[in-house]
Amino acid sequence: MNRQAGFLCPLFSVPGNQGIGDFGQKTLKMIDYISEAGYSFWQILPLQETGNSHSPYQALSSFAGDPIYINLDRLCEMGLLTQSSIVNCNKFKDRVEYDLVKEFKEKYFVRAFKAFKKDFNTFKNEYEEFEKKAFWLDDWATFKLFRDLHNGICWNEWEEEYRDFPEEREIELDDYEDEIFYIKFLQFIFYKQFDEVLEYAHKKGIKIMGDVPFYVDHDSADVWMSKKDFLLDEDGNPSFIAGCPPDYFSETGQRWGMPIYDFEEQKKDGYSFWCKRMDWTHKCFDMVRIDHFRAFDTFWKIPASCPTAIDGQWILGPAHELIQAILDYSPGIVLIAEDLGEIRPEVIDLEDDFGIPGMDVVMFRMEPKLLKKKAKKNVVIYTGTHDNATMNQQYQELPNNKRVGLRRFFKKAGYDYRTYSDMVCHYVLDSDADLAVLPLWDICGYKGDARINTPGTIGLFNWTWKLKDFKTFPDQIMKTKEWIKQSGR
């Protein structure tokens, strides 16, 4: 693999006139900037429709895109809205207010849908082609309809005929024809705009990296439609849930709440659930990072009745068999393994057997003696990820003697910059790793206000930070152009 530099920034963190980074002109402008600076790919995090937490890793579907990313100006270009009717929403805010943005855009979506129906013949061929390709669309539209009818509560709390609809099909959907068409319309527009952004990125020499969480949410169309693929009781409740055991960070471990897969059942149909899920992602992205990759090898299985994760146990995963099934179903898919934390040597063996790069996060070894250790070639090296503090935030929280020692190390290694994050970014680019990824917040030297997520917490500061504008960003990213060139990327 050629040496490449990557850029990490959630799509929602891109500047936007309509309250959030979306598929509009400013995202194309972001692509221009990262392309001009010499980057080869952009990691944007999942784009699926989220639940109440707004976490892109807790989605209502593995397939349905979140309409919040639909750009209104581009609906005008399609003739579905008039430009004069569009106003701005939180244009210069540095936080995404999800509920406000959704309510703001929804009014425009309804108007656009009316125009779409009125002029349907213009879009008929393209829309029907999307319907054929999106094999999951009918299931999603039905799930979304039922969920809305039940005010957003989880599917296993619905009345029995709704809960068991995938198996029994006892509800007549003709009465909801327009509502279902609207839900499908939003998915058509989402993927039309997304494909156009992807095409633009490719013209600029930029590949797009997406993420796939290992587990899916219980409150999702995935579980509702494929109950047999999960360990559930007769009422649809998880019998066992995912998480991790007690460790340095938590005496009682972590209960994530997602249901455990029934891999014995999935094996019977060649892991169809996984194959279809990964293949759709492969069709959308050039590279796919699998979050919690270690669970292919072993996963922590917690009885749902247990209030903590203490009483869980390690279970052997499907490992080679499942990964081979995915690769056979989706030839050419490029996988990256999120393999952070304590893992068995077998996880590394699994990666090596399939040539899947793991991850090296420099923030986790921020001591001179650990920094002297060279990165492996077949890894993706990061300064930090969306789950970490920004580099300058971490630096400010270190004792003074550690800060002095780190600056001395980087200066001796030839990275004599005033800004600490610049030192680390240049060091990462110069590493032996094939792929080096720099997050926007470390390129720009931002502090704690720009942190994307703090794992294990729920609040207003998770998944909400965004860049207000492009005033300083172009200069900040262009300073890395020479570093990228010098590093042979």
Describe what this molecule looks like in 3D:
- There is one protein chain.
- Strand 10, helix 14 and strand 11 form a beta-alpha-beta unit.
- This protein has helices at residues 25-36, 72-77, 98-118, 120-133, 137-149, 160-163, 165-168, 177-203, 221-225, 263-268, 272-284, 319-329, 345-354, 368-371, 391-397, 400-412, 420-429, 440-443, 473-486; strands at residues 4-8, 41-43, 207-213, 240-244, 254-259, 287-291, 298-303, 313-316, 335-337, 358-361, 379-382, 435-439.
- The chain has 19 helices and twelve strands.
- With 489 residues, the chain is of the alpha/beta class.
- An eight-stranded parallel β-sheet has the order 9-6-3-2-1-12-11-10.
- The mean pLDDT is 96.
- The termini are close together.
- The chain is globular.
Q: Which runs of at least 5 residues are low in confidence (pLDDT < 50)?
A: none
Hey, roughly how much beta strand do the residues contain? 5-15%
What's the quaternary structure here?
single chain
Strands in their spatial order, largest beta sheet: 9-6-3-2-1-12-11-10
Q: Specify the helix fraction band.
A: 40-55%
- Based on CA atoms alone, the radius of gyration comes out at 23 Å
Question: What's the overall average pLDDT, rounded?
Answer: 96
Overall geometric form: globular
SS-derived structural category: alpha/beta
User: Count of DSSP E strands?
Assistant: 12
Distance between the termini: 11 Å
Keywords summarizing the entry:
489 residues; eight-stranded parallel sheet; four-stranded antiparallel sheet; 19 helices; 40% helix
